[in-house]
Amino acid sequence: MASKRVEQIAAHLNYPKGMLAGQVAIVTGSGQGIGAETARLFANEGAKVVISDIDAAKAKKVADEINAAGGQAAAIPGDMLDDNYINELVKKTAEFGNGKIHIIVNNAGYTWDGVIHRTTDKQWDTILALHNTAPFKLIRAAAPYFRVKDGEPRNIVNISSTSGLHGNAGQANYALAKAGVVGLTKTIAKEWGPQFGVRANTIAFGFILTRLTAAKEEGAFVTTPDGEKVALGIPGAQKAARESGAAAFKDIPLGRAGTATEAASSILAVVSPLFSYVSGQTISVTGGRNM
């Protein structure tokens, strides 16, 4: 029996149609950054990918690029804080995937920082709703496509952060939310693993080059459902002090920030057959930071 399994694994190491051939994936927040790179990598490995993003133009652009490159993608834009959209996302993805969904990557999110004594209820509630409640509702809505016994792989990846593992000054809301997805992931692994073989893992990113780690002065922002603009990024002076001189990235053994492609590659690795016996884990992708 063991030797047969070894033969099966060896056979899987040759993927003429890609490691994710025949699979259907939802990647939330995939109109840009890590999400967009994840979608591209999944498509390169043969998956049909749904681009979910609140920005319809960006979602369409990523999907069009994937399709032009010979992949298969569909843009289904909308707001993850809208229950109707979540149900629509699952329904349209299943239609796109001929009745199947294999992968969910809960990547959508942003930071809305504030020290504890100045954080408003709105800041608190919005970040927890986006990073905890929305992923839960998406997973719950997609349950009929994961609680199946068709012999095909099913994977859920919830994106966390070192803020969720270690805390971070000015990010009480984000830290709690990112810690919360770890518990959600482990629960999915324990509930849906035994009967249905669903794998669920968390990836906690460190300092990755995205709009959340760019200089705030660059002007990136998101708009809340009621129209408030939330500035994204790190104050320029603080960012410059961290990244310049001999002390640059001194707390990261690799001595640099990670790229969005490197971050996305870790997501691909986790959902691939190469990680077929890994479930319920929190994998830190930090360049060695926080060892």
Automatic annotation (TrEMBL):
Enzyme type, top EC level: oxidoreductase
Transmembrane segments annotated in the record for this chain: none
Similarity-based family: Belongs to the short-chain dehydrogenases/reductases (SDR) family.
Record carries keyword Cell membrane: no
Origin superkingdom: Eukaryota
Boundaries of every Ketoreductase domain copy: 23-195
Keywords carried by this UniProt record: NADP
Pfam families tied to this protein: adh_short
The EC number(s) this enzyme carries: 1.1.1.100
Protein name: 3-oxoacyl-[acyl-carrier-protein] reductase
Example of a GO MF term: 3-oxoacyl-[acyl-carrier-protein] reductase (NADPH) activity
Catalytic activity: a (3R)-hydroxyacyl-[ACP] + NADP(+) = a 3-oxoacyl-[ACP] + NADPH + H(+)
